[in-house]
Design brief:
The protein has 468 residues and is an all-alpha fold. It has 2 domains: 4-135 and 438-466, no CATH class; 174-410, no CATH class. The protein has helices spanning 11-17, 25-42, 48-54, 64-76, 93-107, 110-167, 183-219, 221-230, 244-252, 265-268, 306-332, 346-352, 356-374, 376-386, 388-455, and strands at residues 4-7, 459-462. The longest helix is centred in the C-terminal third of the chain and has 68 residues, at 388-455. The radius of gyration is 49 Å and the shape is rod-shaped. One of its GO terms (cellular component) is endomembrane system.
């Protein structure tokens, strides 16, 4: 005979419809469950292996038929459990009570109801709840892993950036782990390095400015003086002092002056009297270390004087205007030249009438010299050396990158811990789900067996219990 195939949630109705289970089976099951609980409350001196069975109960649902069946079997195995009276009843009271409850389960086939309720509990509540929790935890795990990947990418990019920045100051990043405790230490190191680097760069600019002025004095000033003489402009220019600042720069631009023309006094407050940029005497808060060329106090140099540089800039701009005009005349061959050379001697006229290439070369030199003393980079360096707050701002820009790396390391550690705990939680949920599958499989088999015994025909259950 082919087995009867039933949806698992219809087995109780199917058996009940055939009168094998009373209509109040659920009420009877509740009564028997209370008796099982009362059994353990009444008998407190049970063997340890029997007491352990009580721990199988839980707050959601306890299938008591299986527990009480095991109780009976274990009590039978004891010495007291072997004793019976003349009526065949057990004389060992705990065994007698447990066996009585077990018989009540069998008398109305309530044990089938008990297993059905267990199966329903696992398939309707436990399995979906665990799956939902596992799905949520899996999403959290994916999110944490993605965040960790992003964090690691930011950390690598930040590490490359800060390493490059520190390398430009000859600071080894390996000496400063990405720990927030190293921020103040690195800040002082950066302030020292920025001050030293800008001092060295500024001195190099001044040295190169001096060399450019030497070239101008050699190649352009004679032409300019000839132009002045040729156009009888001696009332405007004294031949002995014409472009005097350019000459001074060429000869003494890097000389240390005793009195800096009352300029840079505020800056000198930040620099030591030994001519170095060790700012520690009058301003103890600005204490930096310098070496090599940075031992020179640039504000005591002739070129370090702002008024002197301003005069130099004015003369360079005037020379630039002169050269621009000559280049324009030579390129355009204008018939109406701005300056007439016919009233001067051939020697002077020849001196002024230099080839275009020489004027273009002088223009390049002038542009470079002007940029060296008044360009954005030059002004930025001077501002940094004059003002500690500017140095700190520059240091803080690099420190922001370092701090972000520190935060990324902290975040990465936190995410690693979260990932580990989430993986453990997911593993636990998967184990719980596997246990539910095991219980469902066993309970389904028991239900099919009991139903077959009750109905006298083979029963097969199907439904979502096969897909848990």
């Amino acid at each position: 005979m082919a087995p009867v195939e039933l949806p698992y949630n219809q087995i109780l109705n199917w058996v009940m419809a055939r009168g094998k289970i009373p209509q109040d089976c659920n009420k009877r099951l509740l009564s028997l469950e209370q008796q099982c609980k009362g059994f353990f409350d009444k008998h407190t001196n049970l063997p340890d292996n029997v007491k352990q069975l009580q721990k199988q109960s839980n707050s959601n649902y306890t299938e008591w038929y299986g527990i009480i069946s095991d109780v009976v079997e274990k009590l039978k195995a004891t010495e007291e459990g072997e004793k019976v009276n003349f009526m065949g009843q057990y004389t060992y009271e705990p065994l007698y009570d447990a066996n009585k409850i077990l018989k009540e389960f069998h008398s109305h086939n309530i044990h089938l109801v008990s297993y059905y309720q267990l199966l329903l509990q696992q398939t309707t509540y436990n399995a979906p709840s665990i799956k939902k929790s596992a799905e949520r935890v899996t999403k959290e795990l994916v999110e944490y892993r993605n965040r960790k990947t992003t964090c690691l990418r930011r950390l690598k990019a930040g590490a490359v950036e800060i390493s490059s920045k520190l390398a430009s100051y000859n600071i080894d990043i390996e000496q400063y782990p990405f720990d927030i405790e190293f921020v103040p230490i690195l800040k002082e190191k950066l302030i020292e390095a920025i001050t030293r680097k800008n001092t060295e760069l500024t001195i190099e600019k001044y040295k190169w400015t001096k060399e450019l002025c030497e070239i101008l004095c050699s190649e352009l000033l004679p032409v300019f003086v000839a132009f002045v003489n040729m156009n009888e402009m001696n009332m405007l220019y004294d031949a002995t002092t014409v472009m005097q600042t350019v000459k001074e720069t060429a000869e003494h631009g890097m000389d240390v002056t005793v009195s800096n023309l009352n300029d840079g006094n505020s800056a000198n407050d930040n620099y030591g009297q030994d001519g170095s940029s060790n700012i520690n005497e009058n301003n103890p808060d600005h204490n930096t270390q310098t070496n090599d060329s940075s031992h020179i106090n640039i504000f005591n140099l002739k070129l370090g004087n702002a008024s002197f540089r301003q005069k130099l800039l004015g003369e360079l701009l005037e020379l630039q205007t002169f050269v621009k005009t000559r280049i324009d005349e030579l390129r355009n061959r204008s018939a109406n030249a701005n300056y007439i050379f016919s009233y001067v001697s051939e020697k002077v006229n020849s001196l002024v009438q230099q080839p275009l290439s020489k004027y273009e070369k002088c223009m390049d030199i002038l542009n470079e010299a002007i940029e060296l003393i008044s360009g954005t980079a030059a002004l930025r360096s001077i501002s940094l050396l004059r003002n500690r707050s500017e140095v700190e701002k520059s240091a803080n820009v690099d420190l922001d990158v370092f701090t972000r790396c520190c935060n990324n390391v902290t975040e990465q550690s936190s995410l690693t811990r979260r990932i580990e705990s989430t993986e453990e939680a997911l593993q636990k949920l998967n184990s719980e789900l596997e246990e539910v599958r095991k219980i469902v499989k066993q309970t389904k088999s028991k239900l099919e067996t009991i139903a077959a015994q009750i109905m006298g025909e083979k029963v097969t259950l199907f439904g979502e219990i096969d897909e848990i």
